[in-house]
């Protein structure tokens, strides 16, 4: 089968969740299919990154969004009623290029990742299509309309309403719909949402695997550190949770790891808090830490940081909201908390009770190995294409 994949970012380097999902799905789909990649991106992409994708794609087309184009897109979107998440990435030049590519390549199936790319596929009614909602943007926006600054709240409230409507309306343009977790599926406001197929993420267990390292840090937070839910969560960790831990363990050190730390994250640095920024091999930061804590406050998506840490046999603590998507058993495969006091209690318990920490780590490892691998999740996706 010839599969056209439409993305809102070039899926390499693997510094964001949507890139990780797209890259691994393309890699697996390419084993039995021809993959044609069409990507929009607002950055210049080095050839070495495209070279990695060429191993799996027979054709790669990248259309760059200039700052001027983005500005015009957002102005146009304000008046046409579509979500800014959609309008930001859509422009006629890219549509024309895609139409030419489809005419030339004659794909058997179109696969769109995120609602950001759905507009590009809509005109091609004769080709079977699959939309990967992946995350429910409206749910994240619903929370941000209350947490952003007073001046920005009306914009986020408007975007929330538009996203809610668009997630509903776009449903009917696609033969198949997928999403990352059952929890996210239930957030889609469509009467036929039961038709949405849950395709979870996987983890590369040949890459993320247990290693023996000297532990330099007791606690780790990892992620894209310019992504608002991660920034909010790490501020909560440093300002609300860790002071309770430091009362009993004043020498404990926290590592904040991940690409593009913004000013809010950099402001958290201290003699007890290290901000590493991007590292070429994220396994090093996992391996040098005793516990991963992910106090996620926004209930969308499946946290790759948890999958990767558990695959490396690192015990994890997270929120109920994040674990609802993961489905691990509290106090057996993971520790779950919903208040600073609960998080602090779990951190101290795992540091003081090495036997329990090792058992949580081992159980979590087997949970991930048995339930989350890219080969099986991508095969489930592939079966949808052949329906």
Please tell me about this protein's structure:
With 387 residues, the chain is of the alpha/beta class. It has two domains: 2-200 and 374-385, Rossmann fold (3-Layer(aba) Sandwich), CATH 3.40.50.2000; 217-371, Rossmann fold. The protein is 45% helix and 17% strand. It has helices at 17-29, 47-53, 67-80, 84-87, 92-105, 118-121, 137-147, 153-169, 182-185, 228-248, 263-266, 283-287, 304-311, 320-326, 340-352, 354-371, 374-385, and strands at 2-7, 34-41, 59-64, 109-113, 129-134, 176-179, 197-198, 217-222, 254-257, 273-277, 289-294, 316-319, 335-337. The chain has a seven-stranded parallel beta sheet with strand order 3-2-1-4-5-6-7, sandwiched between helices. Strands 10-9-8-11-12-13 form a six-stranded parallel beta sheet, with helices on both faces. It is globular, with a radius of gyration of 21 Å. The model has no long low-confidence stretch (mean pLDDT 95).
List keywords for this structure.
alpha/beta, Rossmann fold, 7-stranded parallel beta sheet, 13 strands
Strand and helix layout:
Layout: E1 2-7, H1 17-29, E2 34-41, H2 47-53, E3 59-64, H3 67-80, H4 84-87, H5 92-105, E4 109-113, H6 118-121, E5 129-134, H7 137-147, H8 153-169, E6 176-179, H9 182-185, E7 197-198, E8 217-222, H10 228-248, E9 254-257, H11 263-266, E10 273-277, H12 283-287, E11 289-294, H13 304-311, E12 316-319, H14 320-326, E13 335-337, H15 340-352, H16 354-371, H17 374-385
Parallel strand pairs: 1-2, 1-4, 2-3, 4-5, 5-6, 6-7, 8-9, 8-11, 9-10, 11-12, 12-13
Helix pairs in contact: 1-17, 7-8, 10-15, 15-16
